[in-house]
Amino acid sequence: GRDAARFVFSPPPRTPHSREHLWRLLADGGIDLWSSDHSPYYFADKIGKAPEPGFTTTLSGIPGLETRLPLLFSEGLLTGRLSLQRYLDLTSRNAAAIYGLDHRKGRIAPGLDADLALWDPARKWTIGHEMLHSRVDFSPYEGKAVTGKPITVLLRGEPLIAGEKLQAQAGFGGFVARRPSDPAKAGTAVEDTTPWLDP
Q1: How far apart, in whole angstroms, are the C-alpha atoms of residue 43 and residue 50?
Q2: Phi and psi dihedrals of 136, rounded to 5?
Q3: Alpha-carbon span 17 to 22, nearest angstrom
Q4: 2-168 maps to which CATH number?
Q5: What pLDDT shows up at residue 1?
């Protein structure tokens, strides 16, 4: 029960058949974003005070913010499931457009903020909570080997992370006004269109 509690999240993990369906949607444009609802609980808080953790007593959610792009890079782009174009759409361009920030963010173009993640595409590493930066004491991906890692991150052309070391200074962030989003461009949630019962 304690081990299973690490994997209580919504939507729940899918069967191999459904996972292949989701990969197809990611590749062909049926899914617009690759994101995370990132729930950074300490494990003791997640399982609460129940004598034996169970589905009805365990808080739903997993930490996933820092691992989401490396996982998609390793399992999507490097395996050939996704093209580079789709990877960039899923991880930056589409989010900027949907949230009304594409006048400043989401792609490399004159006049836009120089927000860049520079990757070592051949870097092999193993996910472990000790090396991650969220304030949690577990990762559902503990021990997962991945290839590819962001090494340098720039915000408006200034290094926030350089050589995998945080360089950010307090107060460096800034407010960016959003433009109104066009609701007609919003897709339908995949949960509303996909029957998750396997044949």
Answers
A1: 13
A2: -135, 165
A3: 9
A4: 3.20.20.140
A5: 82
